[in-house]
Amino acid sequence: MREFAFVALTLLAGGTATAWVAPVAALNTLSRLEGVVVTTDLAYADGPRHGVDVYAPRGSGGGRPVVVFFYGGGWEEGERADYRFVGAALASRGIVALIPDYRVYPQVRFPDFLRDAARAVRWAREHAARFGGDPTRLVLAGHSAGAHIAAMLAFDPKWLAGERIDARRDIAGVAGLAGPYDFLPLRSPTLKDIFGTEAQQALSQPINFVTGREPPAFLATGARDTAVDPGNTGRMAARIRAQGGEVTTRIYERADHRTVLGAFARPLRFIAPALDDVAAFVHRVTAGERAA
Questions:
Q1: 2-39: string of b/e by CB count within 10 Å (b at 16+)?
Q2: Is CATH 3.40.50.1820 correct for 2-286?
Q3: Each residue of 200-252: pLDDT tens digit?
Q4: Residue 258: strand, helix, or coil
Q5: Strand 217-222 vs strand 247-252: parallel, antiparallel, or unpaired?
Q6: Taking the domains of the chain in order of start, what are their residue ranges?
Q7: Above pLDDT 70, what percent of the chain?
């Protein structure tokens, strides 16, 4: 196991898509050891990239917290099946986890992926009880671009309002890992195409919507992250605190952009206690408790 962890860590730290896919396949295989109930290939809406997988704890009973997790990929790529290790890890901690796909560039641009995400959240509220979840104990979570999506839904209420969901009343918390929350100015031609004019770009920044009335936030980042500046987490947290909101932050010294999420998997949990921290946050906010 230690040898595998070393290999996986080495690959996860690599900078290519191939370096990510190879260890993720192994981590997903090992996730079967978590002993959770997995339901795949459900649909939260019609059309391509509107599927969702559900990971639930084994055993009878309901009323469990629910997490909708949005994966990253630069708003350009990603497949929910690659994140089985995340869903299984959350379910192993007594949480019903839903991982949806959403449309990405170049098929769509901002804000269409937010509309997809909001529809997935509505589906989660309507169907969570089938899997032992309590739809009134709902947390949004994500990594990288997925953290941006989760934050936008939580902090700009109009996206969930379009699905008849009140973000301030119906969402118990938001957890972001390595998220871009304040990433202007844009320099990448692709990102400029995704997010449009300067006026549109301003509407894509979660930090611009902080009022202090949002649900509690957990924001974590890796100190070694070179893909998304950890300053995004610091600036977002500072804005939330300045507005009187509630936020918990973690900086994991040994983690980078990928391993901050890879640490959810059994072989890589020595890198950072990200799973423990997120699970504790989810259970706390869905129980109506505030940070100490």
A1: eeebeebbebbbeeeeeebebbbebbbebbeebebebe
A2: yes
A3: 999 999 999 999 999 999 999 999 999 999 999 999 999 999 999 999 999 99
A4: coil
A5: parallel
A6: 2-286
A7: 90
